Amino acid sequence: MPRRQLGRHLRELRQQARFTVRAAARALEWSEPKIWRIETGQTSLRSHDVHTMCTIYGAPAELTEALMALAKETKSKGWWHAYGDVIPEYFDVYVGLEEAAASLSVYESDVVHGLLQTEDYARQIIRTHFHDIGDEELDRRVQLRIERQTLVTRVTAPPMLRVVLSEATLRRPIGGHRCMAAQLAHLVYVSELPNLDLRVAPFAAGPHAGIMTGPFIILRFPPSGDGTEAEPPTVYADGFTGGLYLDKPPEVQRYDAAFQEIWQASLDEQASRRLLAEVAGSYEQQG
Fold this sequence. Notes:
This is Helix-turn-helix transcriptional regulator. By secondary structure, the chain is of the alpha/beta class.
């Protein structure tokens, strides 16, 4: 989060100074990709470098000092950095945002969301995505996913989650009948959490916005001390070769509208829980 905030401030300063990325890179004797990584919050930054950038951009002294202090915060590492060997760079950014979020609105069309997966289910999903990895790396990736789930049940300010799963997620037998029975039973259990509203978009609902959008997550962040938005809402969509981050207001508004449409097409909490239990029972009978 500090990296992202710092990057946004530096981008605004560059634009106010009427520097293109190329011109800024030339003045700083850096590469253009380095400027891009800084402005998108993908790298930490030394306070000395921030001072140099602020000087070139003509930033006032008070703002320069504040951004230099923020740069020191970008060096701090979250718990997930211990798994740096198995986290792609693009997803490292997401995990940091997820950890800082006050709320998440999630739509999943094909698989259970990572924060709600059982260990066996997660193992099957990860093995499918990374079919050539060894057992040790597989265990590390599964462990990372399970560690992320403590976010949902943490004592201090757990985020509010609104999650919609397509009925296809329930019907696709990943890992076999026993694995699916346990996974759906787990969903029934966690759906009782006070900060989780879990719903199913049934086949009977017909077409809805999720058919066009595919899976996505809208993250919103805690307000600053004066009640203003400290960090803009962000849409994240996970792709086969990388992640997509969107935070421009028109983009977020479109995904907000899409999520609302999907939400309206879904069963309510009680009906969703009954369907989850019913499908879990059918898997148990088949297993």
